[in-house]
Amino acid sequence: MHKEDGKILAFGTFGAWLTCQFFLMTAAVFTTVLTIVILLVRKSSATKYAILLNPFVFLALINIGQGGVDYYQGNARIRSFGEPAPQFYNIDRQYRLARKSMGCTVTGTSMLGANTYNQTIRTLVSKFGFQKGAYQGVFPSEEEANKLLQENYSVRGSFMFQGDRHFELSYDGNDYRVPLEQRFGLTETTLGKQGLMNQPKILKLEEDCLLGQLSEDWIYVIDLEKSRILARYMVKDRGY
After folding, report:
1. Kind plus residue range of the DSSP H or E element containing 162
2. pLDDT class of 164 with cuts at 50, 70, 90
3. So what's the pLDDT on residue 138?
4. Which tens digit of pLDDT belongs to each residue from 80-89?
5. Where are the alpha helices (DSSP H) in the chain?
6. Same domain flag for 71 and 118
7. Which of 7, 53, 57, 76 lies deepest, with the highest CB count within 10 Å?
8. What is the per-residue pLDDT for 146?
9. Looking at 105, 128, 151, which one is the last position of a domain?
10. How many structural domains does the chain have?
């Protein structure tokens, strides 16, 4: 590689990353293409590095690879940004993937990487099925959960906290001990403020899925097989 080609590569690559970082995508694309074209015209061996090291190709390769590994290991989670909303951590019903907040600081490169990663894991789920360990049973939507409890529930269960780590849910002679997930705000303090129901409305959909209105405001979808909370939904009609 000639010294002059090295300078072109360095300035072009740096410029592409810098403009991409600040969401100046058009400028980043222009800088990348211009750098590659100049090196091609010069018939430089640095051309291949310009192709590989620009943010679009580099981040794509990294995040496609990471997404594939995470999917294979059962650790893939949809990446997002910002302060998590109350239902942010609900398992995605279509892809059966959990969500992960990458924080409140968003840059062009982090957004580009997250989008590529998310598209990778969604494509893998679409082509090869849910990742290992994912819940595969019935999974009602918020509207369906509200309607099912309104029209079909026939059991009032009992609900008791075991400290802030677990809660016990009993109904129809069956007892379940479910680990608490702080991400859902399901703690004795927060639920108490929201109107804890000592005798919650319970509906078992199948052997592995349970709907429980544990408070006046929230319905929880629980995976009975692995004793985990899948989602929480806002109660639409407190009158039922």
Report:
1. strand 158-162
2. low
3. 95
4. 998 778 788 8
5. 3-21, 25-41, 47-53, 55-73, 108-128, 142-152, 188-194
6. yes
7. 76
8. 93
9. 128
10. 3
> Is 68 a residue whose pLDDT tops 80?
yes
Residue 45 above 80 pLDDT? yes
Classify burial at 88, counting beta carbons within 10 Å of its beta carbon; exposed 0-12, middle 13-18, buried 19 or more: middle
pTM for this prediction: 0.89
Q: Can you give the residue range of the structural domain that contains 96?
A: 58-128
- Contacts of residue 103, Cβ cutoff 8 Å, sequence gap at least 6: 81
Closest CA to 23 of 128, 82, 87, 109: 109
Q: Please tell me the distance from the alpha carbon of residue 15 to that of residue 9, in angstroms, as a whole number.
A: 10
Q: What mean pLDDT value characterizes the chain?
A: 88
Whether residue 95 is found in the same domain as residue 150? no
Nearest CA to 134 among 219, 205, 89, 71? 71
**In the predicted model, what is the mean pLDDT of residues 208-236?**
88
Same structural domain, 36 and 68: no
Strands 158-162 and 166-171: what pairing?
Answer: antiparallel
